[in-house]
Amino acid sequence: MELALYTPGLGYYSGGAAKIGKDGDFTTAPEMTPLFGQTLAHVAAAFMSQCSVQIMEFGAGTGKLAFDILTELRASDVPLDHYYIVDLSGELRGRQQEKLKDFKQVVWLDELPESFSGVVIGNEVLDAMPVQLIAKSEQGWMERGVRLTGDAAQPFGFADQAAASALIAEIPHAEELPIGYVTEVHVATNAFVETLARMLKAGYGNEGQGGAAILVDYGFPAAEYYLSQRSMGTLMCHYRHHVHDDPFYLPGLQDITAHVNFTAVARSAIHAGLDVLAYASQAAFLLRAGIGDLLMRTPVENQPAYLPQANAMQKLVSPAEMGELFKVIVLGSDVHLPDVLSACDRSERL
After folding, report:
1. Which of 78, 113, 219, 320 has its CA at 20 to 30 Å from residue 54's CA atom?
2. Would you state the pLDDT for residue 283?
3. Model pLDDT, residue 24
4. 345 conformational bin, left if phi > 0, alpha if psi -120 to 50, beta if neither
5. Distance (Å, rounded) from C-alpha 130 to C-alpha 287?
6. DSSP 3-state assignment of 260?
7. 39 and 105 in one domain?
8. What is the reported pLDDT for 182?
9. Are the C-beta atoms of residues 267 and 54 closer than 8 Å to each other?
10. Where does 73-210 show beta strands of DSSP type E?
11. d(Cα 315, Cα 312) in Å, to the nearest integer?
12. DSSP bridge partners of 341
């Protein structure tokens, strides 16, 4: 998965093809409406009243989310020293630079810095981090790898080897799952969260101010991640807005993702010294953060402007669309959750 997504010049995110939007393979919330970024801008502003006035976005896509956040902060007279972007895709970085050319605060980084105080934002970042596949067989839990088949028409196939005990330990009640059950272990995601924690804690140590990370993605808590109906795992692929489950189809030209285990994210964060400030459905988070009020800035009477935004907001918050499948987890170091968001917190479900 890591090779297919990130090999320089060949991987999906390092190649030159369009990935996001109508000409790509999938779309994201910022591409649907500026209301998403505008809402996050106000959440970021609330956190920046407690820490350094800077934002870091990890995996900035086309730059649309950054554009909407920066535009809203500017319109609201919220000061911002820097907007850092960490992105591994050269093709997307070029689009970001064109989109954000009027914002002098934007700085591109090749990797996470060792120290940062401010607000970190990651929208649909965790799902693109490589996972380990493991499957339960008569012989026990097996790690599923990739082999060469020798068949030119289908050169890659799966091959299993005994799974390390550390991988098995990541699965709650692993002994109770049935033979044939396939799932993912998110080693890279857990490591990323731990790195994020070190960065934010170092920021407090160096600057005396903490920070927060707002991570938005599709996924479940562990109690839902390992249900019987997910016996084939959550790994899926996107190609030209079609969803399928064959990771060997056009390697390097399609997206490969897995749903996020938010319990594992929270556990990694706490282990590394961060606070889990909130866990909520995307719908609850956006509504409490004021997306409805932002929509009403467009007069209802102006239907050509209002209706597309209202329809897009409906997709973001509807349980039948993105509202429940997508979750928001907010992690913090020496900051507290803004009062307006406290009512949406469902951390007990983790």
Report:
1. 219
2. 98
3. 57
4. beta
5. 31
6. strand
7. yes
8. 97
9. no
10. 82-86, 106-109, 118-123, 132-137, 140-148, 156-162, 182-185
11. 5
12. none
Residue 260 CA to residue 24 CA, distance in Å, equals 22
pLDDT of residue 278: 98
Q: Is 195 exposed, middle or buried (0-12, 13-18, 19+ CB in 10 A)?
A: middle
Estimate to the nearest angstrom the gap between the alpha carbon of 257 and the chain centroid: 11
- Show the low-confidence residues of the chain (pLDDT under 50): none
Three-class secondary structure of residue 329 per DSSP: strand
In this structure, what token pair is assigned to residue 68? 């909407």
Length of the chain counted residue by residue: 350
Structure tokens at 269: 């964060």
* pLDDT tens string 179-196: 999 999 999 999 999 999
| Phi-psi sector, 33: left (phi>0), alpha (psi -120 to 50), beta | beta
Q: Where are the beta strands (DSSP E) in the chain?
A: 54-58, 82-86, 106-109, 118-123, 132-137, 140-148, 156-162, 182-185, 211-220, 236-239, 242-244, 255-257, 260-261, 275-281, 326-333
Domain span at residue 262 reads 2-129+186-349
DSSP type of residue 135: E
206 in the same domain as 169: no
Domains of the chain: total: 2
Q: Tell me what pLDDT residue 95 has.
A: 86
Instruction: State the CATH number of the domain containing residue 218.
Output: 3.40.50.12710
Q: Is 188 helix (H, G, I), strand (E, B) or coil?
A: helix
